[in-house]
Batch of 4 targets.
Target 1
Amino acid sequence: MAVDSRSGFCPSTSTFHSKRRPVPLPSDPSLDVSTFVLSRRHSGTVALVDASTGRQLSFSDLRRSVSCVASFLSSRLGVRKSHVVLLLSPNSLYFPIVSLAVMSLGAVLTTTNPLNTPQEIAKQIADSGPTLCFTTRSLLADKLSSSRLPVVLLEREEFKSTDDDEDKRVVTTVEEMMRTEPAEAYPKEKVTMDDTATLLYSSGTTGTSKGVVSTHRNLISMVQIILNRFKLEDGSGEPETFICTVPMFHVYGLAAFATGLLGSGSTIVILSKFEIGEMLGAIRAYKATYLPLVPPILVAMLNQSRALPLGTLRRVLSGGAPLSKEVIEGFREKYPQVEILQGYGLTESTGIGASTDTAEESKRYGTAGLLSPNTEAKIVDPDTRAALPVNRTGELWLRGPYVMRGYFKNQEATKSTLDSEVWLRTGDLCYIDEDGYLFVVDRLKELIKYKGYQVAPAELEALLLTHPEISDAAVIPFPDKEVGQFPMAYVVRKAGSDLSENAVMSFVGNQVAPYKRIRRVAFITAVPKNPSGKILRKDLIKLATSSSKM
């Protein structure tokens, strides 16, 4: 099997192979991700820091807390293997403790966005069937009023049983669990790498939200690849300090902070929500070296009138959406001491897929990076299903040890996303160049069909962002009886601008083929995006089509 060393492409199988060195994975089939993370040898001392209170947990504190919570869950609350446990919370010191405790029992962790409506959360509860919920008192009142689930409060308060209807559902607090000595022998079934570990719900940017079933093997593979990426896998180096701004309920935050980086002995400084002043204070106070974030935060840092004091920070890690050349160059000019690294992944691939691991790799503007270790890829023509070679655009298919088992209770969706050889159809329109770099062109399902021509919204968005009076933009398909769909732009003007609709359309029209021209413009104060920075086009499509009927 001849594989081109430059691109990683094998002509005989039409498959791209990762150019990165393979990462060895544990061979013991009776290994859960919690044991794998907490038993790793390292030189770290402080595991978790709450940026708002300064509270710290050492690695020995973390191990003991996980053991206490797991014991309480099993011996007192009857949580068993395969039971689903819901974690509804903003970023918190408790998030990794609860996550690791639940998974150590072979129970299944499902998380949800605290910003979701009560109806959206109720739908997830009905689908996943949890036996217990960890949440805060305010979220219990605001988001779970119609649920009858038993609740463990994520707050530093004494547990007091009352006659109040809300408190009748509260069985204890996580602090009480952490203070309770583990039972000498509590019920714990054998957990294997092929057992289900998490049930995360996909973002639903192009359809109905679905439960993604990931195994302990998937998560262990993800941890190994993350540690390898940052050269932290042997645990002998100087521990790093990471600022956690990204949501832990999302695969990005769960992968990096609630499991992955704890295995390296690194310190995780947790921000409950993003606020630029608090972030800067945490960077300075804890001498942070890494700042994982989503593109909107990076753009906010770039748009500051003066460079922010970033102290010891060496690297920012951007994921969720590709960064433009203008953003990368602007950030480098403003913060020359900080490297930008990018990554690509999906909930269905446990956050893994491709990455740039050095500043030099990131200079290949627009790329998501080289394929992750232990990864194979195909670029497949969406119409003919033919596998394509270098520099040809088609749907990206991925295969690796981190690819999900399937969608929860949804065989039809699983069959349309995973084939018999466990290739994951990402739904992303991509190409891989002659040097093995992956470029994400657009979401396949978001292509605009104008008179049969395909128009990629991301191409027009990148063009709009080069306009000196535009700070952000999103392009959507607008339905039309004559042409099928045409591109419509939602534009965020920069402060003081009075840019007109015609000026926007002329600016784009002068630089693209006629079928790609924007034919409708609306101005908004902010482009709606999900926690990982992806544009919520379905929300804008709904807004545009409802407005046109008025």
Target 2
Amino acid sequence: MKTLPKLMVAFCLITTIIIHAQNNYPQNYFRNPLNIPMQLAANFGAVRTNHFHMGLDLRTNSQENLSVLAAAEGYVSRVKVERYGFGNAIYITHPNGYTTVYAHLNKYYDKLDEYVKEKQYKDEKWEQDITFQAGQFPVTKGQLIALSGNTGGSAGPHLHFEIRDTKTEECLNPLLFGFAIPDSVAPIISGLYWYDRRFSTYEPGANGITVKKVGNTYTADVVKVNSPMISFGIKAVDKANQGFNLGIYKAELLMDGKLIYGFSIDKVSYDDTRYLNGCIDYTKFIRDKTAIQHLSTLPGMKLQNYSNANMSGIINLQDQDIHTIEIILKDVKGNTSRLTTKVQLNTAGEKISQTAKTGLPNEGKTITTENAEINLSKNALYDAVNFNMYEKSDGDANVVSNAIVLNSPYIPVHDNYTLKIKPNRKLTKEEKDKVVMSLNYGSDTNVIKAKWNGDQAEGQFNRLGTVKLILDNSLPSVSPGWKEGAAINSSILRLKGISKVGDIVEFRAELDGKWLRFARAKDDFIYTFDEKCPKGSGSHTLKVVTTNTAGNTNTQTFTFQR
């Protein structure tokens, strides 16, 4: 009994060391970057198209122009201005080795905003990516640095906030830094799925299992499977007291009490964020908008610091006994949900045939048809794919090739592949210069300028779908939001961009012969009146030059009164 206190002390010391190792980020160093309580619209690691969500989306009460404050002292080390992505963003480097990022902003604080504006006019370029030295724009904790907004790829007013390791540029889970965000709600489980891992997770795909909630636990009936090699996937969300569907932070899978797989989303780099597609059932996500996270590792998924490399999560059933399965989900606060079920192998009367796979993870592959060739790198695939590539005719008069069907838009590729296509007729040099490659992947179209290697058009994409060559002689244009010669009393000029094929890739506006700063919001071009065109300045001529993906250029002239 005399040794018990020593054992208790040793136990407490070990426990303290473990907790510190799990939570070794500075607590309460960073403050809330808003003047209102932090409420989450999205958390770190939430499932997005082709990437993990890399920070926190903080609600701004559906309003714009709320004060955005520096989360800690440091200096503005970078500013970005871009059409999509972050829109207007500020990066602040802090002396403790971290960098915070604030995105979708409407306006920078006055001194910084004026610097950016001057550089835009000097460069005659609206989009910017500017880096700064430590002494140029120092900030103190709580200092106003910007006004919140809805710029870039934002779908509604909010502040996107990230914490990064300054040295590695990895994005870290901000919820690990001790922000005071109340959360007493455990993750909510709504679906369980199993996959036959003798084959690809894409074919035959997910097998759904009904989940029931009894008290505080989730259960499912005995899962009878016809394969000795299976894996599981889970459909679940975290509500965090606030109603929004947030992503799952941590999951564990146990069989007969033994841990066989687990993941946690503590940090991810932008170089690796696309590996999300190997962590989810991509087919269900793209086709059905259902986010199912794999409780196993796909052979081509190489995301670091996400799961234990020694635990694949693939279950090998060696007998027809009933085995206990437990799935444990946790949020950062430790709120926990458990799902318990049982699994049993049942192969009576089973007949299974398997088609040959033409694409395997970790192996490069070249696949050809009569008029096309695709080159997949060794990193392209997460799981085996029976890659079906074929051609079909397209009746559009401007289409100058067969349509090349690249398997299915419901199968992901990790990196860019190269596609070569022969046109279906002889093209002149001038015609070749106006050819674009158009990829349709169901929900959208990606159009790029074709590069020519002899009589083959070449291009790179990172999604599958149907690709064709289009001879585009159409002119891009802009449509003004005012009548010709009208007096403009509003605070902005708005031009609507129009491109029949592809996009407007170059835009230049000149007011009375001098470059004028138009911002771009998706397809709109917007000038906010300033000292370049003050009220009472009379009649003005606006010249606009636009160029589309194919390289076609159009010049338009408009007049207005101010």
Target 3
Amino acid sequence: MVEEELAALARRHGVATRYTDWRGRETGVAPDTLRSVLTALGADVSSPAAVREELERERERDRTRLLPPVVVARRGEAPPRPPGRPDLTVELADGTERPFGGADAGDVPPGWHRLHARLGGRHESVPFLMAPRALARPGRAWGFTVQLYSVRSRASWGVGDLRDLADLAAWSGRDLGAGFALINPLHATEAVPPVGPSPYSPMSRRFAAPLYLRVEDLPEYAALPAADRERLSALGAPLRPDGDAARPIDRSIDRSAAWAAKLQALESLHRLPRGAAEQRAFAEFRAREGGALTMFATWSALAEKHGPDWRAWPAELRDAGSRAVAAEAARLADRVEFHSWLQWRLDEQLAAAQRAARDAGMPIGIVHDLAVGVAHGSADAWMYRDLFAPGMSVGAPPDEFNQRGQDWGQPPWHPRRLAEAAYAPFRDMLAAAFRHGGGLRLDHAMQVSRLWWVPEGGSAADGTYVRYDRDALLGCLAWEAERAGAVVVGEDLGTVEPEVREALAAHGVLGTSLLWFERDDRGRPKRARHWREPSLATVGTHDMPPITGFLHGDHIDLRDRLGLLARPRAEEEDEHRARLADWLALLHAEGLLAAPPETVLGALAAGSDEYDERVVAALHAFLARTPARLVGVALADAVGERRTQNQPGTVDEYPNWRVPLAGADGRPVLLDDLPSRPLPAVDPVRPLASEAGPEPA
């Protein structure tokens, strides 16, 4: 009886008591996991009596409330009638109020309003969003998928920056007919070195990393005398790639060194006086960004003094709204302004990158990437502390490629409290991402539906799923995307429920089709004509080796060396050869690869690279034959890179997110040299440029 009541309480809070694993097996969740998750959600489960009391409170809450915290409907559709059938009126954004219900309920103008419910003597009022029915689908297009930090030019300070992004977009759009450039998250990092390497474990998803600024493009730099410009530019000289194509790579990306040099230069530029027009523009930017910018800049100033993890700060500074924080912000006003100024200049350079993409003919332009979450000690976790669930980390259950599960070390949003805040931080984050881009990729698309919560200190395999209001989150996403005229791509790989993919598609969100994972019901490679149309199709992802490395089984060797294999190496190699043979056979049968599978496999077994470029080209020709709306070509695949950017399951054992772009020979490939380099992967997809153009949903 006790366990049944615990399970019932868990279900009331959207906590899964059972789930289907990656092998299709039904798996129960341990009671201890349920207790930990429910405690993080604010429920008292300290005793059987406490559980029963919590259950009764939940039932009473359902009996007495008239409306949920937020109501979201899609254009042309009326939301479900609340229980008890209260009288409903909608207060429109312009202040007018009218009855709400019946056939005309779906005719409310798009955007945010308020919904009022009255029943007897009770009255409730909540935010109400009329969201788009579905986003318009983009026309067919191809584009590079890029880890921007790895794409260095001779002018960048050791890390690919926003000028490099603008130049990459301009070249690929103008000369190659690319319709977009999909990049890694540019989310904010630590305020001072050292800088964490992962773009997917940021300090803030709302603000960007000044690490990506091009110092020489700042107006303050241009206004300096020549001698001062030379002095500042010299700070980056030790970090710039020397462009010597004969020199093998001997070091990884050093974000900390790059940020230390840029920070020194940026501080010098910030100290320069600003004219009246510039000061007015800066003030307008700060007013537009409001309290969130001020709080982020305050966190940055405090982090310079106390370190990046607010949990280790003096107790009185851990509450972002405290008087002590306000006093420190006033004392550190110059540093608060400096970090606000950095975001202002970032906003301008982000806009310039998107402008360069569109001027080059890209119908979409820059597609930004939204990480699943932020680090525990991050700015966002400090700013919105009450909206995160304590003692929990987001991760993933065991799957085919990560058989021990994953713990990403990121606190999850508290579903109920986020809803009670009308999803404001989520909406602001989306609006910022769309402001200077033509699209957004949702890393781990289940972040809008359910997340795998792992109790801190426990195994990633001992977590469970916690549900969010998918309709509300997708409504917010679709509304912000429609306002920006942008496309949205969801990374719906791995253990994703079918209804999640259906909901994404219904809202006009494209899915992700990954070639190595696309199989039919019999486990065979899926023929091109059977692929999903509303999707971004790629061969691999940043968590897998590039094509050339995959062909040669580099990922098996790496995982074996790092002790990450969950079964004998021989079994991994046998399965890899079988999978590869299936794909080579399909490419050969469709006339995309002239050499028979056994010939290619024999060359690979002998360590030969004779067929590498031909297989890479054939795989992308196959993608071009699918009906997928968007086709992504990893820049790493285009230049023949063999090393993976990220090996899941590792931290320091592998240089994750620090691998500079290189060719198959291990020598550096600089952005400046790309226009003169043969790119066999691009040729098969270039005709897609003629099909680009928005289409109605």
Target 4
Amino acid sequence: MASLSSAEWRALCDKFTTAQNLSEVESRKDPANDPFRSKYKARELLREIYCALKSFETTEGENESGDQRPTEQPVDGEREDGFGRGFNGDSPAGLRAAKLGAVEYYLGVNHIETEELSAGQEHLMNCMKQLEKCSVSSENVSLYIHVRNQLGILWAGRDETEKAQGFLETAESIYQRYMKEEGSPPMDMTEYFTTEENQLTHQERTKRFELAYTHTMYYLAQVYKNLGEIERAATYCHSTLQRQLLLNQYNPLEWALNAATLSQYYITKGRYMEGRHCLSAATVIAGLAGEVPSEAAAQESETERERRDQLRQKRAEIARCWIKYCLNLLQDAEKLLQDNIGELDTERQEELKRARRGEEEAEEKDRKSALLFGSEDTFDSIASLEEKVRCLFPLDFTEARAVFLVGQTYVTQAKEYFEIDGYVTDHIEILQDHSALFKALAFFEEDLERRCKMHKRRIDMLEPICNDLNAQYYLLIRRQLMFELAETYNEMMDLKLSLANRQADTQPLDNHTIKKFNHLCSSSAKYFQMFLDSLCSPEGKFPERLEEEVLRPALVARFRVARLHSRLICSVPSAQLDNLNKSLDNYKYVVEYCEAHPEAVAAVETELELSQEMVGLLPIKINRLKARMATNN
């Protein structure tokens, strides 16, 4: 059998180019009723290429053993047999095996893309068998990595995470060993079927090889996440995002959302500098997707309408991640500065302020060593955005307010997209975060009147929503809102009581102050009771055994209702007696429930101890009041 001539080899290369074009370009135009038409055509061409290579494999083997020699000289530096010019590092036989392996690889990918996973796996494993015939070299290292990436994806899709991990980690080690020992950009798989004049440049080879490894890191990040190795997953995700920027291979909105999501991991670990950097980069890169089309333009074109909606949604999601950043920073600072009763520890505050200079120097040092995103075009923009929000814990009201205002700005942005009509759950979650921002800021406010006004803002934003929500469809959300409203009214009541106690030395409580105090007290009790009522059966019966997720909230609500009834200021003895009896009933419930269900004790140790104490004291107080009422009568 004659060897491939130069013309035959060029025809084979053209066939491969056509197959690639069908798979990657023409397939996008396939009709919905025949979605794989172009890919099936590409498959037939790949099979023809494979058969051609196999048919000449025997002939080439005979040439190399001396039984048959080529009769013509190579043309333009190509091997006459069509296998192309050799590269340092592998034998002609090894390169032939790699070419056959490459066709198996492309057939495998083709079958996977047409949802024929078993056939795809078979072709990919055949590719692996071909590669066993040759050592890793610059001619085939790219194929070594690509096929393992695909097998990793395939097994991950079947929830065989550990199998996927094995293939991907091998791909990673192959890349690292090659770069350590060789370092030069290797031959790309497409060049197996490219004529000499169409070989890739050094720069393009580098880009494609690095992109293949970037995909390895991306898939490993997903694998480690599924295995529960969250820190490792975050490291790989961060590196993937950085490499995508450097290679300029990314979709701006997708990249930005991934970076914003990664920020949430850093935030939960208290790594606010990295979290801020991810969010700043996300905001800048999302901006590269362009301006949001006007509403008028969006109405005229379906494409513009889809683009407008996508841009607004992704930017709103990034804004929500910024809200979480600001909220967590304030809440973590609050935990750091709290004394044993939850108030601001001024001594601790001064101590931390004195240590701040050293902390800022450490931040700068960490900043330089951190894994940063960006290129010359974007780095300045990212750094500029970072300067607008701190990553160190705020230590006083001024610093806390600066963080709060950033968070509030993003609340406004997020609500512009996630409106109550159409995005009920999302809208309410944003409102809850806004409320939590006010609550965290209030911790730093020393003026009790101003602190009270901040809690009033929380009530003003949550109360209308809570009352308007349909209990049938949004029961869990309503419970959250009712409990938060009850606690907010309770907090305001405590603040008003503190203010009244300060004035008690100079003047007695006036009727207005008493009325205000009682209103707050009653409102808190009302929402705690609404929460408890929501746990009842349709017949109005309270459950004998509380579910784990509502155990602590329900017992705390009972405890708070008991406390609130005992604190109401009443001038009428009968009303006071009624409140004390309600208080005693609720304290008794907490004690008796924990006696009947000992496993509940751990959830409410403090509340239980106080309830037991009040169950002993309140009857004495009630009897005294009854005696006084009898005497007066």
